[in-house]
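chain below, 193 aa
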Amino acid sequence: MQRAEAGSATSYAYKASLIGSAHRFELTEQGLSWHVAGRSGLWRYDEISAIRLSFRPVSMQQHRFRADISRDGGGRVAILSTSWQTAALMAPQDNGFRDFLIELHARMAKAGTRAELTAGLGRTTYAAVLAFLSVLTLAMTGLLISALMIGEFAGALFIVGFAALFAWQIGGFVRRNQPRSYSFDQLPRSLLP
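prediction:
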C-alpha cells in the first residue's frame, strides 16, 4: 500500500494469478478507483452498496482474506490479501490489505454511505457447511465406534488423529466465516490480517 504525498490517495495492488497484470485499487477524493483485468472504473463512496469480508484460505496460502465490494446498479470487485510471486509462492500482504480496507471504511463513513457491511459466508452457504460437518461428524463417530468394537485400535487412532487435524484446519475457517453484520467503526478483527 502506498500513500500519496498530499495524503489524499491510498493505493493497494495484488496479482490474482501468475499470468496477467496486477489488480490495482486507489482511494481518491472522488471515490474508489480500480483497474482489474483490462477494465477500470471509479466508484463514488456513496455508490458502494455492500462490502463482504471473509477468510478464504487456499492450498498455497493458508492465511488469505478477501473483500468483495459491490456497487449500486451492478458491479463487483474482489480484493485479496495475497499476491502471486512465483509458480510456488503466494506472498501475504497483510498490512497493506488491512490498512487499505480500514481507510476505505473510514472514507465511506465520511461520505455517509448506507452500504450493507457483512462478514463471513452467506447464511445459506454457512448452513450448508454446518450441515455437511454434522453429517461428517456422525459418520466419523460411527467409524470410530465400529473400529473400537472390532478391536482395530490402530484404525481408531487413525480416525481420532484425522478428526483432530480436520477440526484444527476447518475449525478456524468455520469460526472466522460465521455470518454477521458489522459497522464502520467496528470492523471484524478475525477477518482482517
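The chain has three helices and twelve strands. The two ends are 14 Å apart (CA to CA).
thats it, cya
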